[in-house]
Specification:
Length: about 400
């Protein structure tokens, strides 16, 4: 199946709604925007509908290379792997030249060290989300707004941790546009954390009494409560596109919920957390019911791990692995599989946008880890041992030769 490069060449004046909708689905929201897509009957139909506003053709390998290097937003594993070799300042310069210019330029003079790292990557995530959201149809925006709640919870936990650690500035750690970040900076200026959490809970539509109750038990308990509510809202979200795409997406989320529940059970056992009952943090919506996890919780640690292996399949253990890191590895593997599962969703589907967001988040997390390690002065060999994906990547590279 060949690729097509499609470029928008005309503006929005006097454009029919059906044409506007087609251009939105293609991601061509402004003049001179270009997308590269697989040629198929659906894409051909959209090209036919918007033919007076676009130009298109089969891109050469050289043209693709130029587009990816100069304008592409994802670096890809090979370039991320190359990124490990640079010093901290070289890494920032490399990011600036490969799609992060706005994020680096707007942060470099204002912030230093970890503040700078967080600001660059959170600003970049915010920009990517905004671009996807702006170009989405009205129906797709509903799904993207539901997904954005995850970033809101991230911001809430940033608020809590910055308040506890008496940070001077919360802004570098926040994700979102200025309007959405404003409520967290306002909360951060409140006289106590309870008032701040009550204010944010109401803004997010959560029960403030339940949030405060979870907070009193501890930071870990609060985070579990918030993500429990997020995944339950996501699984109860009724969205219709073509049945097949939503089935793939929600199958991925269900297994992810099962892995999160498994991790919570094991963590409660290992850290012997008595203040928290698993029932209180159990996330509904997965493939496995509460009884399976209550059985895990009542079993010895090794028995519980064996049951997890029986259900999810065994994974190769590393020298320094433990029960938590093994489940984290399973989650990482599942996310990688998720890219393949979601890889076949239809172009123009709202889940296609979410797939791209997953890829952006995954790459940013790798880059963030590397840059922080560089700032701390870790050697290249230590950094490669720090992130599991690098080991897998090196194995793949060796097997390809």
């Amino acid at each position: 199946m060949s690729l097509l490069a499609i470029v928008r060449v005309r503006g929005m004046v006097d454009t029919r709604k059906t044409v506007n909708r087609t251009l939105e689905i293609l991601g061509l929201t402004e003049n001179n925007h270009c997308v590269v897509v697989k040629e198929n009957p659906v894409v051909k139909g959209m090209i036919k509908k918007a033919i007076n506003y676009i130009t298109y053709g089969c891109p050469s390998k050289e043209m693709l290379k130029h587009l990816i290097l100069k304008r592409g937003k994802l670096l890809g594993d090979e370039k991320v792997n190359e990124f490990v070799k640079y010093s901290f300042n070289e890494g920032l310069k490399y990011l600036e030249e490969h799609g992060f210019r706005e994020s680096v330029d707007s942060s470099f003079l204002q912030f230093k060290g970890f503040y700078l790292i967080e600001r660059v990557f959170n600003t970049h995530t915010s920009r990517i989300y905004k671009k996807i959201f702006t170009s989405a149809s009205k129906e797709n925006k509903i799904l993207l707004n539901a997904y954005y709640l995850k970033y809101q919870i991230h911001n809430t936990m940033v608020l809590v941790r910055c308040y506890i650690s008496k940070e001077k500035d919360i802004e570098p750690y926040l994700i979102g546009d200025e309007r959405r970040k404003a409520k967290y900076t306002k909360a951060f200026e409140m006289p106590n954390l309870e008032d701040a959490l009550t204010y944010i809970s109401k803004k997010l539509g959560f029960n403030s009494e339940e949030v405060l109750s979870a907070h009193k038990k501890g930071v870990y308990e609060l985070e579990n409560y918030l993500y429990k509510k997020y995944y339950e809202k996501l699984m109860n979200f009724k969205f219709k596109y073509n049945n097949l795409d939503e089935k793939k997406f929600f199958d991925f989320i269900r297994t992810y919920i099962d892995l999160i529940n498994s991790r919570t059970v094991i963590r409660l056992k290992i850290e012997n957390i008595k203040t928290l009952n698993f029932k209180d943090v159990y996330i509904e919506g997965g493939n496995l019911n509460l009884g399976f996890f209550e059985d895990l919780a009542s079993s010895e640690l090794n028995t519980a791990l064996n049951k997890i292996n029986e259900h999810f399949g065994k994974i190769e253990k590393t020298e320094n692995s433990n029960a938590i890191s093994e489940i984290d590895k399973r989650i990482s593997i599942h996310k990688t599989k998720g890219n393949k599962i979601l890889g076949s969703v239809h172009f123009g589907s709202p889940f296609f946008s979410l797939k791209y967001l997953f890829e952006v988040e995954k790459e940013i997390n790798k880059l963030r880890t590397i840059l922080k390690a560089k700032y701390l002065g870790l050697k290249e060999s230590e950094i490669r041992g720090l992130i599991e994906w690098t080991k897998l990547l090196l194995l793949e590279m060796k097997s390809s030769h």
